[in-house]
Design a protein that fits this description.
The protein has 362 residues and is of the alpha/beta class. It folds into 2 domains: 227 residues, Type I PLP-dependent aspartate aminotransferase-like (Major domain) (Aspartate Aminotransferase, domain 2, 3-Layer(aba) Sandwich), CATH 3.40.640; 117 residues, Aspartate Aminotransferase, domain 1. 40% of the residues lie in helices and 16% in strands. It has an 8-stranded mixed β-sheet, sandwiched between helices. The protein has a 3-stranded antiparallel β-sheet with strand order 7-6-13, with no helix packed on it. It has a 3-stranded antiparallel β-sheet with strand order 12-14-16. Strand 10 and strand 11 form a beta hairpin. It starts with 10 loop residues before the first helix and ends with a helix. The structure holds pyridoxal-5'-phosphate. Belongs to the DegT/DnrJ/EryC1 family. It is an enzyme of class 2 (transferase). Pfam families: DegT_DnrJ_EryC1.
């Protein structure tokens, strides 16, 4: 069975982890700071604050940007739970805006309409789904005109760019995840990035019990820190990020050239966008369950990200949200299937995946 994903871990990560274990300093410390510095340098941003997960990073960002209870925030209904659960945790009201059918990301035209309808909203939580940047230039421009702030959920898009600019550097803050399946991983982990000195300091306090000075608690905070053990892995993973993304793009290009089945629509990469293919996601016309079963019968693992919209989740129905239309997102949720695209796939495996997809019939 070809799994849906597999991390690229080598001797370098193992050596670094041993270095931490031998040091006796396993909690957040020297290696965490090194990892933060190297990630900030990679993105070309002033600050990076490591966290225990991507969700913790998102929450730290949302808590620290200056939004207040009851504020409305535009976001996509077609994403992972934490993009929106952190808004609810902060007492904010999600305003769902539909996605673009080709990019699966927030549709800027629909967002502009929603901004007309809810001019009192204070922010936009944008997601770069599957590793493809959203139209973040247009979105940031729309937000700026109305004095709204932008937060980027970059959990699936390490190293993704629009022209030469990395995602995570367009908004007031960006949040990354280093969960085991992401393009680079620390097992569990996350990172908040920002160019804003004051915001960086607030985030650092929030993830460390609200203290700047030891045992002096200025604000309510938590232990959302990243350990040296996790950071040691990340330190080596960052060095491999460009290689990993190039490999994923090569695998995606192979699929684009060889998948040929009228029932299977391929992903698109708009001009000027650098897609890092966290997922290679196709759209299946007809019975998706049969397609998935066909892949599994042929020894190909696959995933469905995501099988439903967040508007349908009981938690958000209870917490309350505004829905400005989710038809496109709902259709995507019924049709998408993600294929293995991880960097360790060999040519023989790529061929098997193509063969399985091409031999599917209704
Ligand atoms: C993975 C992911 C998260 C959450 O990251 P964790 O590290 O699992 O907490 C948030 N948003 C998106 C879009 C993700 O894919």
């Amino acid at each position: 069975m070809i799994p849906i994903t597999r991390p690229l871990i080598g001797e370098e990560e193992k050596m670094r982890v041993l270095e931490v274990l031998d040091s006796g300093e396993l909690a957040s410390g020297y290696w965490t700071r090194q990892f933060e510095n190297s990630f900030a340098e990679y993105l070309g941003i002033r600050h990076a604050v490591a966290t225990s997960s991507g969700t913790a990073a998102l929450q730290a960002a949302v808590e620290s940007v200056g939004l207040v209870r009851g504020d409305k925030v535009f976001t996509t209904p077609f994403t992972f739970i934490s993009t929106v659960s952190v808004l609810v945790a902060c007492g904010l009201v999600p305003v769902f805006v539909d996605i673009d059918a080709e990019t699966y990301n927030l549709d800027p035209e629909r967002l502009a309409e929603a901004m007309e309808e809810y001019p009192e909203a204070k922010g936009v939580m944008v997601v770069h789904l599957y590793g493809l940047p959203a139209d973040v230039n247009t979105i940031a421009e729309l937000a700026e005109k109305r004095g709204m702030l932008v937060i980027e959920d970059c959990a699936q898009a390490h190293g993704a760019r629009v022209k030469d600019r990395h995602v995570g550097t367009f908004g007031k803050a960006g949040a990354f995840s280093f969960y085991g399946s992401k393009n680079i991983t620390t097992g569990e982990g996350g990172m908040v990035v920002t160019d804003d000195d004051l915001l960086a300091e607030k985030v650092r306090m929030f993830v460390n019990h609200g203290q700047r000075e030891r045992y002096h608690y200025e604000v309510l905070g938590y232990n959302f820190r990243m350990s040296n053990v996790n950071a040691a892995i990340g330190l080596e993973q960052v060095k491999k990020l460009d290689f990993i993304n190039r490999k994923r793009r090569e695998n995606a290009a192979y699929f684009n050239r060889h998948i040929d089945n009228p029932l299977v629509l391929l992903p698109k990469e708009p001009e000027g966008y650098y897609h890092v293919y966290h997922q290679y996601t196709v759209r299946v016309m007809g019975d998706r369950n049969r397609f998935v079963q066909h892949l599994v019968n042929n020894g190909i693992g696959c995933g469905i990200y995501y099988p439903s919209c967040l508007t349908e989740q009981p938690i958000f129905q209870r917490a309350g949200y505004i829905d400005t239309g989710t038809d496109i997102a709902r259709q995507a949720a019924r049709q998408v299937v993600s294929l293995p695209v991880y960097p360790g796939l060999g040519l023989e495996e790529l061929e098997r995946i193509v063969l399985a997809v091409n031999s599917y019939r209704e």
